[in-house]
TrEMBL record:
Predominant cellular place of this UniProt entry's protein: cytoplasm
Record's protein name: Ribosome biogenesis GTPase A
Keyword GTP-binding among UniProt keywords: yes
PROSITE patterns, alphabetized: G_CP
Pfam families linked to this entry: MMR_HSR1
Organism: Heliomicrobium undosum
Protein location: Cytoplasm
């Protein structure tokens, strides 16, 4: 497999903007993808936030392995980082965010009281990689569509403030990746979940990466979805098998691997291949 890198020019501007806006907020809501809670944490964002209070939200938890999500929640909390699993699409877990924000900002509230200041709405910055669900979360909290969403990376291009009731104001920010993925597997995991645009990757390689993962973790999910046993054929034939089962034929009746790869990617991202977590808590060394 070749390496994957994707860092369009607008991300440099967005990264700079996040740094400039940091002084305007009380804390950060850091969204990560529950299927890759480690690989979807941007080390640049981590450095920019520094000591700013933060809450990690494991979004799209409905697509991740529930047991792995619970281990990751413990993983973050053991490092004194408040964490919640949520699903912005359905609203699962979202109601717990506001109380946790207030709890996390208790030291700030105490300082306001000591100075005789009147309480104001908390200001939070929503940060994360592309296509992790930041705008969907804000719309869910707002109870209506306030920001543009789409199931592809790079939709939000500029910061947007959204008022959530009387106690919270959210600053939406564009999704940001980092210039170079030191671990090639991180690039494949980000591509598998849709954080890296399909337009800049070899989708057959990414689909093969997913199938390789499933061959070890859940080969039955492939058998149930596509009707073949992975262990009975060579790994280089898996995409052909998908194409054959789906009837994807190109010119001259040749099996269309590209179309099969797109099918695998779509099925993985939508949960039709089951709920899977590509990261493992024990992989984290920090």
């Amino acid at each position: 497999m070749s390496g994957i890198q994707w860092y369009p020019g607008h991300m440099t501007r967005a990264r700079r903007q996040v740094g400039e806006d940091l002084a305007k907020v009380d804390l950060a809501l850091e969204l990560v993808d529950a299927r890759i809670p480690l690989s979807s944490r941007n080390p640049d964002i981590d450095r920019i936030l520094g000591e700013k209070p933060r809450i990690v939200l494991l979004n799209k938890a409905d697509l991740a392995d529930p047991a792995a999500t619970r281990r990751f929640i413990d993983h973050f909390r053991e490092r004194s980082i408040p964490a919640l699993s949520i699903d912005a699409a359905t609203g699962e877990g979202v109601r717990a965010i506001a109380p946790l924000v207030e709890q996390t900002l208790e030291p700030l509230i105490q300082r306001w009281r000591q100075r005789g200041m009147r309480p104001r709405a908390f200001r939070a910055m929503v940060v994360g990689i592309p296509n992790v669900g930041k705008s969907s979360l804000i719309n869910r909290l707002a109870g209506r569509r306030r920001t543009v969403t789409a199931d592809r990376p790079g939709v939000t291009r500029g910061p947007q403030w959204v008022r959530i009731g009387q106690k919270l104001e959210l600053l939406d920010t564009p999704g940001i990746l980092w210039p170079k993925f030191e671990d090639p597997l991180v690039g494949f995991k980000l591509s598998a979940t849709g954080a890296v645009s399909d337009l800049v990757v070899q989708v057959q390689e990414v689909a093969q990466f997913i199938l390789q993962f499933l061959s070890g973790e859940a080969p039955q999910s492939v058998a149930e979805r596509y009707g073949f046993q992975m262990a009975e054929i060579s790994d280089i034939e898996w995409l052909d098998a998908v194409a054959r089962r789906r009837g994807f034929l190109g010119s001259g009746g040749v099996l269309d691997r590209e179309k099969a790869a797109i099918q695998v990617l779509g099925d993985f991202r939508s949960g039709k291949l089951g709920r899977h977590t590509l990261d493992k808590p024990e992989e984290y060394t920090g």
